[in-house]
Amino acid sequence: MTPPSVNLAIALLHYPVYNKHGETVTTALTNLDLHDIARASKTFGLDRFYIVTPSADQRTLAQRIAGHWQEGWGADYNKDRKAALDIVRICDKLKTAVAEFQSGFSAPVRTIITGATQRSGSIGFDQLRQMLQTDLGQPYLLLLGTGWGLTEECFASADHILAPIAGAGTYNHLSVRSAAAIMLDRLRGTR
Amino acid sequence: MTPPSVNLAIALLHYPVYNKHGETVTTALTNLDLHDIARASKTFGLDRFYIVTPSADQRTLAQRIAGHWQEGWGADYNKDRKAALDIVRICDKLKTAVAEFQSGFSAPVRTIITGATQRSGSIGFDQLRQMLQTDLGQPYLLLLGTGWGLTEECFASADHILAPIAGAGTYNHLSVRSAAAIMLDRLRGTR
After folding, report:
1. What burial class does residue B117 get, using C-beta atoms within 10 Å of its C-beta: 0-12 exposed, 13-18 middle, 19+ buried?
2. Phi, psi at residue B102, to the nearest 5°?
3. Which pLDDT score is estimated for A141?
């Protein structure tokens, strides 16, 4: 398999994330997270999208969804879908995703965490876009959370925090699929 | 009910659109189109998102999905979801959506159509963003297609054609949910 060569990749984490009550949980895989984020990642030129879940059952399910379009009748039915799902890698934990992404680069992978709230020390989208363009040999892994967002421990251990997407008012409840699409456009889109 | 007051709204059309074979069809409603585009529209300050389908059964289904979060136990369970779905209006045809949107404005509604291919005479995102900011009394209805895209007749009868979202290469297969999110960010996002 070809190692990753594009210096931005996405990891969608299903653990450790908060549920509605602020408890740390493992969320279930959402079929369309896999499809939508794979298609958006591929559209914006990424060659890796990691689905991360500690549940073996959920990894099997993710593999089956991706596999249907890669090898099943779906591969013939929709070749564009296959091209997008070819960049998906299913991992048990973040460390595994980082190691796979690392295989394409000599500089250590840096993680970038995102959430819906403004935090001190965040970097902006323009700044990160610039960082991505300036050093193509520096890999950045963008961490996205499911459920009610990644836990505080994740924020403490990430290398960078990316500013939240600002909407037009106080309401800010994008799905992770929509947020991923906007982030990719801001970081790699052409106008 | 409060009439619309924001000069941009989205209409998601389930007819007339192409299927994979280039035939004109009515597509089935996708649950997450309704949720994701409503949440993104609300986040970027829109107060109308029209779901348009000629199928009475499908309109009933759309109403049931939206209604669950507006009036059912979902309304209590997730108030943010309710706020997003409050802007959804379900219509039988585009004309009905235009008329409802028109009720908030004296200037005639102008339609803007979008697709994945570059066409001559398209306006760019920056230009439309400027148009939206310059004349708050001029309503624009952004038409999004499901399936394999809106038919040529739709392109011929729209007032404006918006340039496609450019990715990083030749692959360009965003879901309509992802495309809507990116468009809203480009037209109304704050950096």
Report:
1. exposed
2. -60, -30
3. 98
User: How close B21 gets to chain A, by Cα (Å)?
Assistant: 11
Predicted confidence (pLDDT) per residue in B67-126, tens digit: 866 666 666 667 777 788 889 999 999 999 999 999 999 999 999 998 778 888 899 999
Query: Can you spell out the DSSP letters for A68-113?
Result: HHHTSHHHHH-HHHHHHHTTEEEESSHHHHHHHHHTT-SSPPEEEE
Q: d(Cα A167, Cα B41) in Å, to the nearest integer?
A: 9
What is the rounded average pLDDT for all residues in chain A?
Answer: 92
* Chain B environment of A176 (Cβ under 8 Å): none
* Contact with chain A for residue B171, Cβ under 8 A: yes
Residue of B nearest to A127 (CA): B191
Per-residue pLDDT tens for A132-158? Answer: 999 999 999 999 999 999 999 999 999
ipTM of predicted complex: 0.93
Chain mean position to CA B65: 17
SS3 B17: strand
Predicted confidence at residue B72, as pLDDT, reads: 62
- Is any Cβ of chain A less than 8 angstroms from the Cβ of B31? no
Q: Which of A169, A174, A181 is opposite residue B45, by nearest beta carbon?
A: A169
CA B164 – CA A190 distance, rounded (Å): 11
Vertex A19: Cα angle to A14 and A20 (nearest 5): 150
Task: Determine, for residues A40 and B178 on separate chains, whether the beta-carbon distance falls below 8 Å.
Answer: yes
What is the C-alpha to C-alpha distance for residues A80 and A77, in angstroms, rounded to an integer? Answer: 9
Mutate to test the interface with B, among A173, A176, A188 (most CBs of B within 10 A): A173
Helices (H) and strands (E) in chain A, counts: 8, 8
Answer yes or no: are the C-beta atoms of A84 and A42 closer than 8 Å: yes
Interface test with A, best of B47, B170, B182 (most A CBs within 10 A): B182
The label of the residue with tokens 């109304």 reads: B188
